[in-house]
Structure formats: C-alpha cells, structure tokens
Amino acid sequence: MGSSQIGVFDSGLGGLTCVKQLQKLLPHENILYLGDSGRVPYGTRSHETILRYSRQGASLLLSKGVKAIISACGTISSVAGASLAQSLPIPYFEVITPAAKSACSVTKTGRIGVMGTSATIKSGALQNAIKSVLPDAEVFPIACPLLIPMVESGHISPDDKLVQVTLELYLSQLASCKVDTVVLGCTHFPILSEAIGRYFGDGVTLVDSGRTVAEEAASALADSGILNDRGEGSVSCLVTDSPDGFSAVAEIFLGQNVNWSIKQIDLSEMEGMKL
Ligand code: DGL
C-alpha cells in the first residue's frame, strides 16, 4: 500500500496548484493526477452533472488502486465532497474544510471574502464551513466564473490587461466590503495569486485552497502511516482532452518543464461504477 499512488482529481488544470504543494511536502510520493480537461469547467454546470462527473473521476482513480484521493477542486469538493467522503473506502480529502479553517485562523476582523465558481458559491459550502468555525464571521461570497477559462487559456500575469479588467469586475465588490482575508475557493485561482494580491494590496491575506488541502492530506496520511519513506516521487497524469494542450498550459502554471507521463482517457466509461 505504501508504494501505491495518491490520486488527485480536478476538472482541469487548477488542481496542479495542490500537486505543486504535495511535491514539496511529500517528496517520496507518487501522484496520479486526473484532469477532466475535456469537460472543464464544472463550475457552471448543474448539481447533478457535477455529482456524476465527480463520481466518474473518483471511480477511475479507485480503479487504478490509489491509496487516497484528494478532490483538488472547490466545485467537486463543495457539491460532491460529502457524498464521496461517505462512499469512498480509502482516505479522502476535500478543499472546503481546510480552507475555511485557515481563513478563520488568519482573519483579524472576521470579514472574509470567498471567491469560487458559480456552483461553489451557490452551494454555500464555504460560507457554512467558515460560519461553523467562526460563527461571528461576516462572509462575502463572489462567484468568478470567467476566471477559469481565462486561467485555462494562459492569461495569468498581473500585467495582462484581460486579467486586470476581469479582476476589477469581480473584486471591486469585495474590496468595498473591507475584507481582511480572501479564500481562493477554486484551485484555479492561486495561479492568479500575484495578480489578486496586487489588486488588494498588503492588508488582505489570501488563502490558497490547493495549499491548505495539501497540508491537511500530508499530515493525515503521515499519521496513518501509509506514506513512502524513500525514493524519488513522480507525477503521472490522465486527461480527457489532448495531452499536448495540457502539458503546454501546465508548464505555464507550474513555471517548470513538465516531463510527466500524460495519457488521454475516456471518463464516461466509468458510468456504470457504483460510487
Ligand atoms: N478547479 C475548479 C474549482 O476549484 C474550477 C474550475 C471549474 O469550474 O471546473 O472549482
């Protein structure tokens, strides 16, 4: 079991923000990343469709024999997290709870902004998780659907005009609410950390949901004694659209050459699985 892979699942490339952290925290682990790049975005789809896609993704990772699954996606976590946690027979981690805990521990004023996809914000999962840790918190949610295709098409620089205009569209509301903490409740958003940080300035702390779930999973898996203690870890990817397109944008995100094995698969084949 120790040598089997940790499965990380996202609708596209955003979950790589979690993979980047996992590689730092767990250098001996082998990671199997599943990016549903052919069907991204999930966040504008219905609850039922997100649930179905999420079960297909988790079933695929389970069929590959992974020892744990991380939903490195705010949308999957907020819509399907509870149901996956119940039905998966292996350790499962989602991004909502650790991001909410982290936001509550860093805020000084209790005024917390929450950025996510339309589905994540509509689910109320992050808002509820924050309130359950800090009942007096004032939470200001904002759905930012246009940020996902913008990031997926490589527009991430703080100097990019499209990035500046789109952030202004969404973040001016949060700035006027005088938040001191903002949860990047979609794993695509940490890729825009520099641009978002520049928009808000020093008085606002950003909470990276990909990083917080990586930290939580690393510590829980270490406690459960199923981690590798030697050897160089690896990353291999399964994607549902062209591997070439995926690796080109992954390199922009990660700021490094991506010489991982990347294979294309068909997730609809998992339709009959029981999860
Ligand atoms: N990475 C996904 C998330 O964290 C977002 C993108 C999508 O809409 O599929 O919500």
Topology:
Layout: E1 6-10, H1 16-25, E2 31-35, H2 47-63, E3 68-71, H3 74-87, E4 92-94, H4 96-106, E5 111-116, H5 118-123, H6 125-133, E6 138-143, H7 147-152, H8 161-176, E7 181-184, H9 193-200, E8 205-208, H10 209-223, E9 235-239, H11 243-254, E10 261-264
Parallel strand pairs: 1-2, 1-3, 2-9, 3-4, 5-6, 5-7, 7-8, 9-10
Bound molecules: D-glutamic acid.
Q: Bound compounds, please?
A: D-glutamic acid
Helix content range: 40-55%
What Rg, in angstroms, do the CA atoms define? 18 Å
Distance between the termini: 21 Å
Strand-pairing-aware structural class: alpha/beta
Q: Please, could you describe this protein's structure?
A:
The protein is an alpha/beta fold and 275 residues long. 45% of the residues lie in helices and 17% in strands. The chain contains eleven helices and ten strands. The chain has helices spanning 16-25, 47-63, 74-87, 96-106, 118-123, 125-133, 147-152, 161-176, 193-200, 209-223, 243-254, and strands at 6-10, 31-35, 68-71, 92-94, 111-116, 138-143, 181-184, 205-208, 235-239, 261-264. It has a six-stranded parallel β-sheet, with helices on both faces. A four-stranded parallel β-sheet has the order 6-5-7-8, sandwiched between helices. Helix 9 links the parallel strand 7 (181-184) and strand 8. Helix 8 (161-176) crosses helix 9. The longest helix is centred in the N-terminal third of the chain and has 17 residues, at 47-63. 49% of the residues are buried. The model has no long low-confidence stretch (mean pLDDT 94). The structure holds D-glutamic acid. Residues 10-12, 14, 40-43, 73-75, 117, 120, 148, 186-188 line the site of D-glutamic acid (DGL).
